[in-house]
Design goal:
Layout lengths: L2 H22 L3 H16 L11 H12 L4 H13 L5 H12 L5 H18 L9 H22 L5
C-alpha cells in the first residue's frame, strides 16, 4: 500500500470523524469549527498552482529587502514570503472540486464563503457571530459530496 493511498484513507477517516462530531456535539460555533476541521482534512493535501515557482525569484526578493529592514522586520518578511505559496482555503476548495469532478451550485458556493468568514471571525475572537442551522445543513451536504467523491477516487466501484 503506497503512502499517498494511506494518507488519503486517513484524511477521509478524519474528515468523517469531524463531520460526525459537528453533527452531534456542541453549540453552533463549535459545530462550525468542527465542520471546517472536517473539510480541512480533505483539503490538507490539495495541490494548487504556486505564485512564485522559481527559488531564484524568492532569493532575489530576500536580497532586495535585506538592507532596508531591521532584523525583526526581515524575519517577519521571510515568514510571509515562505507562506506566499501556501494556497488560500478557497483556492484549495475550488481545486478539490475540479479535481474530484464535483459540481456545486451558486448557493452552496456562497454558503461556504459566508461560513468561512464566520469561522475566521470566531477564530479571531469576534463575539456574536450568527450561525444559522440552514447554513450548517447546506455545508454538511457540501462536505458529504466531497467525502463521497474522495472515497470514489480511492475505492472506485467495480463493474
Amino acid at each position: 500500500m503506497d503512502k499517498a493511498y494511506k494518507t488519503g484513507q486517513n484524511n477521509i477517516i478524519f474528515a468523517m470523524h469531524w463531520l460526525r462530531r459537528a453533527r452531534d456535539f456542541g453549540q453552533m460555533d463549535d459545530k462550525l469549527l468542527d465542520y471546517f476541521t472536517s473539510i480541512e482534512m480533505l483539503l490538507s493535501a490539495q495541490e494548487t498552482k504556486k505564485l512564485f515557482k522559481l527559488k531564484e525569484i524568492m532569493e532575489d526578493l530576500r536580497c532586495a529587502v535585506k538592507d532596508l529592514l531591521d532584523e525583526e522586520q526581515l524575519n517577519r518578511f521571510n515568514e510571509h514570503l515562505n507562506k506566499i505559496n501556501e494556497p488560500s482555503f478557497m483556492l484549495r476548495f475550488d481545486s478539490f472540486l475540479i479535481e474530484q469532478g464535483i459540481s456545486i451550485n451558486t448557493e452552496e458556493k456562497k454558503n461556504v464563503e459566508i461560513l468561512r468568514k464566520k469561522r475566521n471571525d470566531l477564530i479571531h475572537g469576534k463575539s456574536n457571530v450568527a450561525i444559522l442551522e440552514e447554513e450548517l445543513q447546506l455545508f454538511d451536504n457540501t462536505i458529504q459530496k466531497m467525502i463521497s467523491a474522495k472515497i470514489m477516487t480511492i475505492c472506485p466501484r467495480k463493474n
